[in-house]
Design brief:
By secondary structure, this protein is α/β, with parallel strands linked by helices. It has two domains: 143 residues, Aspartate Aminotransferase, domain 1; 234 residues, Aspartate Aminotransferase, domain 2, CATH 3.40.640. 44% of the residues lie in helices and 15% in strands. The protein is built from 16 helices and 14 strands. The strands form three sheets. It has a seven-stranded mixed β-sheet, sandwiched between helices. The chain has a four-stranded mixed β-sheet with strand order 1-2-3-12. Strands 11-14-13 form a three-stranded antiparallel β-sheet. A hairpin with a 6-residue loop joins strand 2 and strand 3. Helix 5 packs across helix 10. The radius of gyration is 22 Å and the shape is globular. The two termini are 40 Å apart.
Length: 415
């Protein structure tokens, strides 16, 4: 049936309902390169405002680094703009294989396969590797792209309570009849910022002869002593079977992702993963820039060290001011507000004071779990964070949220 007035009215009502519930998501328009201070137009049509950026995944501050940009230009000149093909036909260049080898060395894995994004990697890996004979046992807070990827597989699916090792062990014991048991988790959980207990997960997996899959997108490049990721942070490098991660956050911030791990598993993805087989190759310009990023972070830990220092400092400022902050050690620092409209009002108040953040609410997080997710960068200086906390305190006083815990916030503003 053609798109008609009935359909138009239906979707307009749906959009009106989203607005009425305070759940409508508005884009902010950035007028310059990604950085810790940016020019932003919000709402659309309003004058551009200079703001401190506290909500990008630019963890190492490399999105617009001169050496990364120069490498991208050089890659464009030497290898062209795009491949106009998928990898297995005529879309693989020498730089693709060079980046895969460098990523394997950095992550401490046997082999790596590039994908257009980590979402594509997650969409391809489970279907390529697992069948009705297997079971995927996922932490209940895994990223949405993992959930979507698992749905594409014919494997049985189960979950365990977030970071609950006793519950995970029960699930592993329950599924001993399956050919392969696969524990599925994020390395750092993108909404709460907490770290998976990978050392305990790996120990349980080895006890029950299971595999471990980790999406490490919010850890690669900066978690662990040399920035390898959550598996280095928890002391299990070489003991994770499958890692997916992204080039679109700390490793340059453009796009691209990968599957990395056991050689046979990666090769099976090369043979069967549909997003790999049917998507154009990662553009040479991105590959070239990512190679430069790995050189930068491989030669020094200065950036991840500064990020770690900034994270401690910012968490301390928020706690001292009386905000309800999710605990953790990652540079994802959620300020909990629990009410969607309150989160949006808080974000607007901050924007008016020169701080760029976004309110997160359903369906991005569960209902009643609305928040301001702040994210630190190695490019932030303490002066940026001092200015930010002044704005947070000012808005917090204005809206009456300082010093309130979860129960008090929900009583005052509703879930």
């Amino acid at each position: 049936m053609a798109y008609d007035q009935k359909a138009q009215e239906h979707y307009r009502r749906e959009l009106d309902a989203i607005r009425s519930a305070g759940l409508f998501k508005e884009e902010r328009i950035i007028h310059d390169p990604q950085a810790v201070e940016i020019d932003v137009e919000f709402p659309a049509g309003e004058p551009v405002r200079r703001v401190i950026n506290l909500c990008a995944n630019n963890y190492l501050g490399l999105s617009s680094h001169p050496k990364v940009v120069a490498a991208a230009h050089a890659g464009l000149d030497r290898r062209g703009y795009g491949m106009s093909s998928v990898r297995f036909i005529c879309g693989t260049q020498d730089v693709h294989r060079e980046l895969e080898r460098k990523l394997s060395g950095f992550l401490g894995t046997e082999d790596t396969l590039l994908f257009p994004s980590c979402m594509d990697a997650n969409a391809g890996v489970f279907e390529a590797l697992f069948s009705e004979a297997d079971v995927l046992i996922a932490d209940r807070l895994v990223h949405a792209s993992i959930v979507d990827g698992m749905r594409l597989s014919k494997a049985a699916q189960d979950t365990f309570k977030h970071s609950d090792m006793e519950h995970l062990e029960e699930k592993l014991a329950e599924h001993l009849d399956k050919r392969f048991r696969v524990v599925v988790t994020d390395g750092v959980f993108s909404m709460d910022g907490d770290l998976a207990r990978l050392d305990e997960i790996v120990a349980l997996a080895e006890k029950y002869d299971a595999m471990v899959f980790v999406d490490d997108s919010h850890a690669t490049g900066f978690m662990g002593a040399t920035g390898r990721g959550s598996h280095e942070q928890t002391g299990v490098v070489g003991r994770i079977d499958l890692i997916t991660t992204t080039l679109g956050k700390a490793l340059g911030g453009a796009s691209g992702g990968c599957v990395s791990g056991r050689a046979e598993l990666v090769e099976m993805c090369r043979q069967r993963a549909r997003p790999y087989l049917f998507s154009n190759s990662v553009p040479p310009v991105i590959v070239s820039a990512a190679l430069a990023v790995l050189d930068l972070i491989g030669g020094s830990t200065a950036r991840r060290d500064k990020l770690e220092e900034n994270t401690r400092y910012w968490r301390g400022l928020l706690a001292e001011a009386g905000f309800d902050v999710k605990p953790g050690a990652s540079p994802i620092v959620p300020v909990m507000l629990y009410n969607a409209r309150l989160a949006q009002d808080f974000a607007r108040g901050l924007f008016a004071r020169g701080i760029y953040v976004v309110g997160f609410f359903f369906p991005v997080v569960a209902k009643g779990q609305a928040r301001i997710r702040t994210q630190l960068s190695a490019a932030h200086d303490k002066a940026h964070l001092d200015r930010a906390i002044e704005a947070f305190v000012s808005v917090g006083r204005e809206l009456g949220v300082l010093g309130l815990d979860r129960r008090q916030l929900i009583e005052r503003f509703g879930p």
